[in-house]
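During the reporting period the student researcher (J.K.) took over the structure-prediction task from the postdoctoral fellow and processed the backlog of single-chain submissions. One of the processed entries is reproduced below for the supervisory committee.
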Amino acid sequence: MNKFKKISLIILVAFYVLAGLNHFRDPGFYYAVMPHNLLYPKALNMVAGVVEITLGLLLISTKTRYWAGWGIVLMLIAFLSVHIGMIFDAPFKVEGMTITPFFAWLRLAAQFVLIYWVWWHTSDREKLL
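J.K. obtained the following structure tokens:
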């Protein structure tokens, strides 16, 4: 694995572990952006956090990276409804931050960048550490 791709993978692992932990540190943010028709938002938030942490850690090993990567891709696709909903709900405030329509569109576009970034690492067969 070239140096750039290794650094990219380290950042990706850290990103998903920290994002997962943030579901427990600041659950109110996630409740505010979740579609209002979802049942059991607290449970969904906790499950999402655990899944993000787990899949992020599973990216470390070459033995689990392929499946972890595809798990994250599927998770990101499932979360598209959240980001599309943000576009329709914007503008709105979340913990003092205003989510504008422009920001909501940027966040939706970022979702596709994240999907590609993770997919790029699904073929990595070399060890991270």
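The committee noted the following: The chain has a mean pLDDT of 93.
J.K. will present the remaining backlog at the next meeting.
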